[in-house]
Amino acid sequence: MTAELTNPSLAELGFLIGKWDMAISRASFLADPDQVVHGRVEFLTTEGGRFVVMRQGIEPSDPPAASWVIGRDDSQGEYTVLYADSRGVSRIYEMVLTQDSWKLWRNSPTFSQRFEAGIGPDGTSIEGRWERCESSGVWEHDFDVTYTRVLLP
């Protein structure tokens, strides 16, 4: 557990705290499927280390394009993630994080999503993909994302 996290149920999130580069690729929502969009991500603690916040943006976005608040019921295995973005979208995800994988999902009758990623052995890279499912019930690739920790001098 890092010094910033005072909530023991969030201990496994400690390696995320800090700044990360983000690269989005193979995105269904971009006009050019070969385009790679870069951005920044920061994980930090809030409320005295009781929650983790993820703020992400596409450069030079200010304020962040999306914010995530991550918490956990200490009697449950999954985390709860509250998500909101600059488009006015608000969602609730369930999340599981292990030493080598990260999964998020939401099930909704009209628009479901799931994310699955592998965490590099040294904890400084995360490579994953998002999928979406609209009311048709068919899961489709949405986009790939890679997070790389920004190393401090």
What does this structure look like?
This protein has a single domain, classed as Lipocalin (Beta Barrel), CATH 2.40.128. It is mainly beta. The mean pLDDT is 90. It is globular and about 40 Å long. β8 and β9 form a beta hairpin.
**What's the CATH topology label?**
Lipocalin
The first-level CATH class is given as Mainly Beta
**Lateral strand order in the biggest sheet:** 1-2-3-4-5-6-7-8-9-10
SS strand fraction: over 45%
Q: For the record, what is the CATH homologous superfamily label?
A: Calycin beta-barrel core domain
Give the overall form: globular
Residues in helices, as a percent range: under 10%
Query: What is the distance, rounded to the nearest whole angstrom, between the alpha carbons of the first and last residues?
Result: 22 Å
Average pLDDT number:
90
Name some characteristics of this structure.
153 residues, mainly beta, 0% helix, Lipocalin, ten-stranded antiparallel β-barrel, globular
Quick structural summary:
The protein is mainly beta and 153 residues long. The protein has strands spanning 18-25, 37-46, 51-58, 66-72, 79-85, 90-97, 101-106, 111-119, 125-134, 139-149.
SSE inventory with pairings:
Elements: E1 18-25, E2 37-46, E3 51-58, E4 66-72, E5 79-85, E6 90-97, E7 101-106, E8 111-119, E9 125-134, E10 139-149
Antiparallel strand pairs: 1-2, 1-10, 2-3, 3-4, 4-5, 5-6, 6-7, 7-8, 8-9, 9-10
